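To the wet lab folks,

You asked to see what we're planning to order before we commit. Fair enough. Below is the target structure as tokens, and below that is the sequence we designed to fit it. If anything looks off to you, flag it before the synthesis order goes out.
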């Protein structure tokens, strides 16, 4: 016979089911650009790559963070520009936004020199221009500004020759922030998730690219197309084949698998190269970084 449960006198024991997690944001020291570690190699021509797809949830910020970190691990000097008002690249690298004095908004609208905004050495050989909630109003405020499409391009001019790569994490839209990225970039990297409707909206992105190329940035072109969230299913294989048929040799041989560790890493403020350096996600992004370097 089961004893009757005494709810009034029952003792409740609170128990931690997860181990305590280090506050990574406190570990990410926010330094000024003048405190940047010295560069140990000769910088050649800076390549500015915009990571872009106006469709959300395709892995833009994940790719921006982890490609930057992987290139840094391979000895390249990288500047990551967070141009997304959500600021996922900034928080994903452990930056406490409330401690940031200036962000990319100030570069675009207050003419603050980009060197005053760069947070150096956020990862080995990786610096970042962070985004905060202030950037959310930039789309509206840029409308009335002179030379509004060239703001980012002009601000990046002084740091050409100081980095091997500048990666721009674009917002999931085709507004003025994205147009600024298209004008500033040399090339585009387009992540496409291996799911249904993968190519939906890509045509509109390519039309925008052609308009910017014809009027504002004649050298703009596609650097590569990256398959993300790939798993060993019939659908993923069909989408991959469809993307390869559409873009041909522009598709990277490397692809990014659907991986739990990749999803977890941003909540710890770490790139996958730190959070799970031997996992499938880290290996995939390291292979992508090598392919990016080999493409020149």
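Sequence we intend to order:
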């Amino acid at each position: 016979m089961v004893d009757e449960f005494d709810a009034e006198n029952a003792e409740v024991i609170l128990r931690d089911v997860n181990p305590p997690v280090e506050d990574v944001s406190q570990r990410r020291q926010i330094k000024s650009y003048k405190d940047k570690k010295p560069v140990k190699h000769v910088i050649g021509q800076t390549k500015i790559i915009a990571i872009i797809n106006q469709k959300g949830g395709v892995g833009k910020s994940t790719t921006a963070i982890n490609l930057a970190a992987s290139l840094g691990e391979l000895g390249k000097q990288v500047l990551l520009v967070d141009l997304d008002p959500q600021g996922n690249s900034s928080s994903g690298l452990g930056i406490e936004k409330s401690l940031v004095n200036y962000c990319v908004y100030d570069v675009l609208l207050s003419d603050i020199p980009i060197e005053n905004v760069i947070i150096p050495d956020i990862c080995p050989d990786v610096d970042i221009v962070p985004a905060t909630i202030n950037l959310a109003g930039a789309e509206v405020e840029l409308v009335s500004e002179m030379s509004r499409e060239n703001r980012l391009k002009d601000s990046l001019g002084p740091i050409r020759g100081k980095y091997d790569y500048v990666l721009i994490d674009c917002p999931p839209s085709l507004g003025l922030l994205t147009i600024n990225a298209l004008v500033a970039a040399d090339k585009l990297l387009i992540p496409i998730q291996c799911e249904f409707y993968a190519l939906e909206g890509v045509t509109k992105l390519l039309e925008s690219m052609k308009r910017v190329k014809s009027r504002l940035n004649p050298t703009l072109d596609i650097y590569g197309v990256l398959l993300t969230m790939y798993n060993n299913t019939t659908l993923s294989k069909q989408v991959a084949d469809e993307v390869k048929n559409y873009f041909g040799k522009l598709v990277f041989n490397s692809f990014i698998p659907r991986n739990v560790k990749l999803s977890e890493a941003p909540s710890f403020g770490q790139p996958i190269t730190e959070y799970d350096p031997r996992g499938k996600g880290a290996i995939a992004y390291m292979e992508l970084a090598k392919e990016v370097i080999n493409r020149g």
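Structural context that might help your review: The longest strand covers residues 221-230. Residues 280-295 form the longest helix (16 residues).

Thanks,
Computational group
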